[in-house]
Fold:
Amino acid sequence: MKEKIISVGIDIGTSTTQLVFSRLTIENTATAFSIPKISIVEKEVIYKSRIYFTPLKSETEIDGELVREMIESEYVKAGIKSKDVDTGAVIITGETARKVNASLVLEKLSGLAGDFVVATAGPDLESIIAGKGAGADLLSKAKRGVVVNLDIGGGTTNISVFKDGEIIDTTCLDLGGRLIKIHPDSMKVEYISKKIKKLAENMGVQIEVGEAITVDKINGITNRMSEIIEEVLGVKKATEDLNLILTTKDLKRNYDIQYISFSGGVADCIYGEYSDENNLIYGDIGVFLGKSINKLGLPNKFIIYEPTETIRATVVGAGSHTTDISGSTITFTNDIFPLKNIPILKLSSEDELLGYEELSKAIKEKISWFGLQNEKQQVALALKGVKSISFRELELLAQTIIGGMEEILSMDVPLVVIVEHDIAKALGQTIQRYLEYKKDIVCIDAVNVGNGDFIDIGKPLANGRVVPIVIKTLAFGY
Structure:
């Protein structure tokens, strides 16, 4: 039986804030003899808000009250009341996620609907979310190749690399359309980020707030910014300027890229046509940057794919809650439930073919995708696992997980491991033994999740044999 629900997606980015209401059709896709599995079978966007500039009290603080007022006004315009919204996501991204009061803003907004996914996305997680929003994962699966999505917003360029539908690499650059703000009439610089000021100095260009800037200087700076995109994609040799602009680690570049796509606010300036008279229409360098990227000749190197969503790629609508039940062979050490809104790190099929030492390193590296500015974030590790596993392999897998999840183990949160195959009880008990029973552990099986999902785990049922699961999936590409 199908059911229609209303979902809202709210994205508070570096330069813009927006929301989208969607009508999702959900259906139990399991057989009559299986545990219910609720999936999204259809998605219709029913309302897109105007795109607001994200209000800030200062360079380090978001104006949470004004954000809430903006969002509430869009509920009114859409003719939707908060009680009508069944599910949704509030995601703070880009430079905004680094603001000191980001978590407080999330709290202010989380009451606008039912059970939200509420998250602050660090640069790598945002890359994954934006890449999925642009459909890069689906394209890579359909073409059975490597697709790179560059989500170029106001303050950052989030880059995600997908192969055969799975995320294999991410990075983030401090490149964006609002890193220099310019008064359209006086041509005076109103703001310049520290990194772009340094980049300009490396070119021999001096730029100061309060002083006028010429079009030639702007073009010179945005041309250099676009060349750094060539460097990160491997078209040109990497320079020290790339190291300056990197927010996180660099791309590995050990794969052959076939397709690239652009999303984010600057993508509209890449795909669209702007006359020279409209170069400063937004009071920033976004149009200049889009034009500079257009001149690169990237179509000679890659197939350029234009996604259906550009500026709205990060959250085009939030997802359904897939209700599930864990397998009956699970491990948990204490009644620490419910656990809510834990982001999923799903190992790829290629990861699971690695040797145990390499796999441990891969887990460590991917845990960094979920890091926030100056703080750690709880993450649940998900893997397929092996159907018939020997005792020695089980011990090695437990040691690998402990080594890879070292950062999470240092936090005052339980270790959460999710496996598809029926090995959670033995795996959890082995991890427990190696940790000398000093850490809370939740190890569950018979659950299928993906990167970009969030999980809630409820209190145990059936005398502790199973736990109820809610998987919150951001609804992309429907």
